[in-house]
Amino acid sequence: MTSAILPTYARADLAFEKGEGAWLTAVGGARYLDFGGGIAVASLGYSHPHLIEALTQQGQKLWHTSNLFQIPEGEKLAQRLVDASFADFVFFTNSGAEANECAIKMARKYQSANGHPEKYRIITFEGAFHGRTLATLAAGGQQKYLDGFGPKVEGFDQVRFGDHEALKKAIGPETGAILIEPIQGEGGIRPVPQQCLKGLRQLCDEHGLLLMFDEVQTGMGRTGKLFAHEWSGVAPDILSAAKGIGGGFPLGACLATTEAAKGMVAGSHGTTYGGNPLAMAVGNAVLDVILGDGFLDHVRAMASRLRQKLGGLQDSYPKIIEAVRGDGLMIGLKMVPNNGEFAVAARAEHLLVIPAGDNVVRLLPPLVIGETEVDEAVKRLYAACARMDASLNGVKA
Predict the structure, then answer these.
(1) How far apart are CA 34 and CA 194, in angstroms?
(2) What number does CATH give the domain 16-34+294-392?
């Protein structure tokens, strides 16, 4: 059947009609264990009762008023995020790309407010992904996403991931900020060492630059802390969050210190839908769970269990899995064969995983998974590896 949807997605021939916990049920009744989490979005899994309650209660009262008026649930969510983080202010958006757009504008406006409008350039890193708008595509710098969309938006300087000398040389009189993901997600689950994050903080302080962390994929408990940068003890000036913050409802946020936000005055930025009452009710419900007693301890425990078992999987199939990397429940399997083919093999075992750059398969399960789901996922990964191994050896699986 011909689809009326713009053909920008290479969709699998699979559709889902309902979900519960870490499980999705396809049209037709087949059940799949979801270790992709809608690309790190379904932080609390599917049909979480607390999220459903918050959504339905708010939906019966008020969906939208616009930011021309006070939104009490937004004030509440912003204050909770401030209390739990480095930040003093929060701007709510509908997506991670919008959160990063806000971060970019804020960094430029900060330098301008300080009397340095020429310091508009932002250093980013090869392999990064910051969104699909023209500015965030330019920030990510990946040519495959930029091709055909005209001149690249000015103001971004990419340096090689992990090349400290190149980073230092890239800082010039027009540099105003550094933007980095604590763990590259689309780039292949490549963590930035904690010492490097500390070095970036020192470098920014020395040169009067803002340090910006893109935690769209790494934030909201994904690594066992509310935000991944907390493991390093380093705080940014600006941070973008999205994906898991809404548990599946479109929601993003840009967090900032008072100093970094000094140029963002009335009229300097805005959004029609961002921070609407429905989104704020869901965001507060997500935070209720993530900041609840023992939740992040649970994430760390499940991450440890999964990582240990994946080590055994790699040992058993070294011709399939080259390395296991990542932190918390943001794990990458660096593949020897094609990662897309492995994702298909996993799907044949009714396990959902997500391909990424650097020939990596991502495991981004809901943070609510238990030991049973971890063990079942690993069992299915073993079956997928056996299927790939047989295919590589010319044996029909």
Answers:
(1) 30
(2) 3.90.1150.10
